[in-house]
Amino acid sequence: MSETTYTELRERAATFDAVDPLAPQRKLFALDDGVYLDGNSLGALPLHVPARVQDVLTRQWGELRIRSWGESGWWTAPERIGDRIAPLVGAAAGQIVVGDSTSVNVFKAVVAATRLASLAGEGRDEILVDATTFPTDGYIAASAARLTGHRIVPVAPAAVPGVLGDRTAAVLLNQVDFRTGRLHDLPGLTAAVHAAGAIAVWDLCHSAGALPVGLDEHGVDLAVGCTYKYLNGGPGSPAYLYVAERHQAAFDSPLPGWNSHADPFGMTPDYAPADGSVRGRVGTPDIVSMLTLEAALDVWDGVSVDTVRAKSLALTDFFLECVEAYVPQGRVVSVTPAAHAERGSQVALRCAEAEAEAVMRRLIERGVVGDLRRPDVLRFGFTPLYVGFADAERAARVLAEVLEETQQA
Description:
The protein is an alpha/beta fold. It is 38% helix and 13% strand.
């Protein structure tokens, strides 16, 4: 690497940061002098959240106690917070409920999808599942298939149109691949699923808060997602379930808890589902985590998802350019697509399996925090609300230094 190249890239980074419309958002987060590129696993803490949580603990719980279910809005929090997430994923109000984990919501969505599909006629006994999916989605879908008498068909997302048929009940796909950062064609695949008469279920864990999703625009049936990545809701923050309005009257949850009952305090032995997205609730909401998430979502006030997407693509482009300039040829290979239409908000670099773990460990020791997906993928998540172009340049430069040291060792 020449000194001229190094100087040029640093100057360009400074120029980009100076005109970045999202740069002011960075001061809203608890960050140190390092480069945090693991927001695709756990988002950074918004600075105002601890004070809000303290109020939940000391006043709402400590002073008001049981009265907070009404006076502090605890009871309506799942739908209220769902309506705050809705614009970030392209959904109108009244279609998202917050609560439970992503895994639990995947189970609800997949089973409910098979039940919706059965309303159109018999013979639909297959559930197509993204063959590259995050493992839990596959585990949950397989269990749902055993419980409902369906057959699981693993398939690469791009191959879904060729596998769909009159036996397909539901299709569970990830919008962004968690390993490679590949962005799949949600509009096109959803249309293909509908043309086959099946129900489309999307996992948005690696896309919500990083890029436009367009759930309503593209006619998605059901969707799930976590809130602790790009939405910065905190470790283990509750997930969400989207049920398109057109399906809500027929949505038949496999977990009909008392919180989704039309008269939850009637305590009747027979179950009668509530109207709307409330049907997606199960048991008592995790209030502390839920209200932590609600507070964290304040950082999105006035932020356009389109602006976030533009910066995400610019950041990942610039990082890849810096990697190409700094890292000796052949030491790492990007497995993240170069095409913008096929890229999420992370860059995954494959390096020699024997050194991958050591490389990521040394990066973290040097203040560049990414993560390793075994056996050989170095993963770097770019959260546009708080990651800048100088961060991208520094990460690539430190990566080159670490790789050189590893080779010498």
